[in-house]
Design goal:
Two copies of one chain form a homodimer. Chain A is α/β, with parallel strands linked by helices. Chain A contains 15 helices and 21 strands. In chain A, the strands form five sheets. In chain A, strands 17-18-16-15-19-20-21 form a seven-stranded parallel β-sheet, sandwiched between helices. Chain A has a four-stranded antiparallel β-sheet with strand order 1-2-3-6, with no helix packed on it. The structure holds calcium ion (CA) (5 copies). Chains A, B: It is an enzyme of class 4 (lyase).
């Protein structure tokens, strides 16, 4: 048997987690001499000292709960022994109090990307077909299959054709105050750098989300020459295939229209070539899902280290997941680059608190059975392990759900999103993400058709079993084979490779999940 | 030019709608001698008499609005000239006051269906793959494609293989009070009669919606021999492929597991044959979408007549769409078969009023730009045209969103759902629908993979242009070629044909929309 291995995140912590595969049996003697009083499963916590009732249980140097009873040293500290701390009030927070860490810029790192007319850079060269409404999704799916089969082979420099299907667009309260979120999300996804500025829209005709409401004049950078004054004959019309147009006679005429328009865009996309661009053109969205106690020990700290490298290289890194940062709000407002950024963080948290309250739940609704099984006692512990993905840079900006980054926005950005994997990924796509990093402890076959997803395993066991789904194994940190820094650098180099065209496992299998919109407004 | 044709729904109405293609020009003399003062577009209303300001504008013998100014006879009565009536209070309604119409039972009508072990009857013989969470959707999609290519040709009596993908299952507030709706919806869809009682589930492992929570012991009729007492070795386990199971090594092992389990069910489904069953085994969901003013004049009245035939034949007919019945609530509570049924209607309306109010909108958020363009001034007029789909039978039961019909429930049922086409269709599938009838005026390529959808055009122009998307042309009523009764009978006979295996247009093109869950609870 391998020797007992426990990981303590901070020297002041009074618990550590068990790293060994299969956990450690009762009676195990740790290197410190401590004897386990219970079997402690892998990823779960052991009390390093006696914890009298009401003691704060510290991990990441933060109280993740209070002992509900006396817990002797060597005991398994599971969620049923802990009382969860209340959520931090949103008043009186430290605002932009931590000075930005002084760090050497990282220069000379580049990747091979597709430079767009608006200056942004794609990591893939994809034809995306924007849809105003779910009504057209079946028709677009049919057309996309034919385009892939009949047209795509003739355009070898185009990576893929993707229908941006979603469930929004009609049967929704489109004038409700919160409807702005799903609408701008669909709009901004169609402007994602991986689609080369080639916007084509398929519309039904009678839907609430009319093409001109989805894509008002002026939103398509450079390519959009439509005039705000509309009737102007010089303006290019928005490229819309409207199924209800009277010119369409029979189903195949609709398919023909979509294919004819697709060809125009495929021609232009096919003429593009990758070119050398600085690493500062990366827009990386980081996320975790299917988390376990190792997420916050191996994969997420390595992502955090890599996030710092990216920021030093002048790139953009977005972290997200409202319910997983809520319990660390004081750390984050302190790290904001200005009081305005800190206030924007607070505004997003307050909005989400109110949203959850309307549905009669709170942030603790985040945790899953798998989290608990994996050793995460509650949302506070999960949050601390999630936030480390953000590294240690100053937070330089905040995006509301569905908002798009401005061209000048660089550095570490908080993109406010639910923690739901698909909703978070969808909103990061809308923000302009051209590369996605996703850490998982329990394992998920998550993928997106719109953007490459680098999947990071938190444990070697998962990386071994899911050898053709996990792109990188941060479990090597727990195994003592690599340091967090080494793993962070490995990720950074892999990001440059994948951004340059190297396929991820999900891409190789063409595994992709649905776009899932965040619609806090009612359906009708 | 064809002679001017207008349609008045009730002799007391003070407006009629123009039926002619392209509308009627200013100066047209109607057969009554009335001269049009404006061009009136097709489907739009003309004032039959002078309407002084504040006059109630009557259609279907119901005030659909009040004149905002004096409107002379012969004018085009569009939505900008009308003030919408407020919503009817939910107190003091007539409860079960209208006696059930006495009607001859219809006997001797049958179709060829698949009889299930629980007594229900499928109109198709489909293998459905239930999913606990969106995380597995990409893997299931990959597996379904392989099953269709490699296995399905060996099982000629199985119609199709369908992955029941949805966006629920994790990243949601699963213990929120309203979360019961999406959960029971996914559960009940998997029990739809078209799936033959063969339930197979693909689960990730760590998701919130665990397989045993989705499908607790006892929910699978007959086939489910699991015991509420659980640990009992005699019980058949729920058939679950769990991707995180340690037995899975590599992506292809997951695909193999899904295919291996699929074979077991395909074998059993393939041994089934259609048999003659009475028309009373039909469970028809009726819906309208992309509506225009003809919806309430041609297609919906014919559906209503057909609904009465179905009820006379002992079948089940569900109508739905909360925001489209809200303004007719007094008619509907009056038609309830008992005060309890009327109270259930009121309960659903009150719940939905509150739901919309939480999102700061009301039932008027229902109407679309296409509705208005098609001549529907507001939700009151739209509602009156929508409700006629229910025919004139007594309302014998009410289902909450996602609920499943009891085996004994027959007759006309109000299945409370949003009006959103996909959400309504999804909830009717959960209720146990084995045949769907969908009327459309503006035109939509709507389809479902789980159940045949008969699409009814409200206008001949649409039926001509969309000749391979519309299954039946109710526009013949406006053309004076068929009566509502004749069209209703034609629909009834087509339903028996389609239920017996005749393919609809959407099935021939394999056009299908997404399942869209109704989740009024927060995401996390
Ligand atoms: Ca997470
Ligand atoms: Ca997540
Ligand atoms: Ca048993
Ligand atoms: Ca409708
Ligand atoms: Ca509808």
């Amino acid at each position: 048997m391998t020797s007992p291995l426990t990981i303590q995140m901070h020297e002041a912590d009074n618990v550590a987690i068990v790293a060994n595969d299969g956990g450690l049996p009762e009676g195990t003697v740790l290197p410190s001499g401590l004897v386990l009083r219970d079997h402690v499963p892998q990823g779960h916590k052991v009390a390093l000292v006696d914890l009298p009732a009401d003691t704060a249980v510290l991990r990441y140097h933060v109280p993740i709960g209070y002992a509900l009873q006396d817990i002797p040293a060597g005991s398994w500290v599971h969620e049923r022994l802990l009382r969860m701390p209340p959520a931090r009030e949103l008043e009186g927070l430290p605002m932009a109090t931590v000075p930005a860490p002084a760090r050497e810029p990282l220069t000379g790192y580049t990747f091979q990307g597709y430079r767009n007319a608006d200056g942004s850079v794609g990591t893939r060269n994809i034809l995306a077909i924007t849809q105003t409404v779910q009504c057209v999704a079946g028709v677009v799916e049919f057309a996309v299959e034919r385009i892939k089969r009949e047209l795509l082979p003739k355009y070898p420099h185009v990576d893929d054709v993707v229908g941006l299907a979603h469930t929004y667009g009609c049967g929704v309260a489109i004038d409700a105050p919160d409807a702005v979120i799903p609408i701008r999300t669909v709009r901004n996804i169609s402007l994602n750098p991986n689609f080369g500025g080639e916007v084509m829209v398929v519309s039904l005709g009678c839907e609430k989300l009319q093409p001109e409401r989805l894509m008002p004049p002026g939103v398509i950078p450079i390519a959009d020459r439509r005039d705000a004054g509309a009737a102007d004959a010089q303006g290019d019309p928005l490229d819309v295939v409207c199924l209800q147009d009277t010119q369409h006679v029979g189903f195949m005429s609709m398919i023909d229209s979509v294919m004819t328009q697709a060809k125009v865009h495929l021609e232009r996309l096919n003429s593009r070539r990758r070119e050398t661009v600085p690493a500062s053109e990366l827009v990386v969205g980081v996320q975790c899902g299917g988390s376990d106690a190792f997420s916050g020990v191996t994969a997420n700290p390595a992502v955090g280290f890599c996030a710092d490298l990216l920021v030093r290289a002048g790139a953009t890194v977005m972290f997200s997941e409202n319910t997983e940062v809520r319990d660390g709000i004081a750390q984050l407002t302190a790290r904001a680059s200005s009081p305005e950024v800190a206030e924007a963080m607070v505004r997003e948290m307050a909005w989400y608190d109110a949203y959850l309250q309307r549905g009669r739940v709170d942030r603790s609704a985040n945790t899953t059975p798998g989290n608990k099984k994996g050793g995460l006692s509650n949302i506070v512990e999960k949050a601390m392990g999630s936030i480390v993905k953000s590294g240690s840079s100053a937070i330089s900006g905040v995006l509301s759900p569905g908002d798009k980054l401005a061209r000048h926005q660089r550095g570490l950005i908080y993109a406010a999103t639910p923690a739901s994997d698909f909703i978070c990924g969808t909103l990061q796509l809308a923000a302009g993400m051209n590369l996605h990093v996703f850490t998982t402890g329990r394992g998920t076959p998550y993928g997106l058709a719109e953007c490459p997803v680098i999947k990071v395993a938190t444990r070697s066991d998962l990386a071994r079993r899911w050898h053709d789904l996990m792109d990188i194994n941060a479990g090597q940190i727990a195994d003592g084979e690599k340091s967090i820094e080494e793993m962070g650098w490995e990720m950074f180099r892999m990001m440059l490779d994948v951004a340059s065209g190297r396929k991820t496992w999900a891409e190789r299998h063409q595994l992709a999940n649905a776009l899932v919109l965040f619609n806090p407004a009612p359906v009708t």
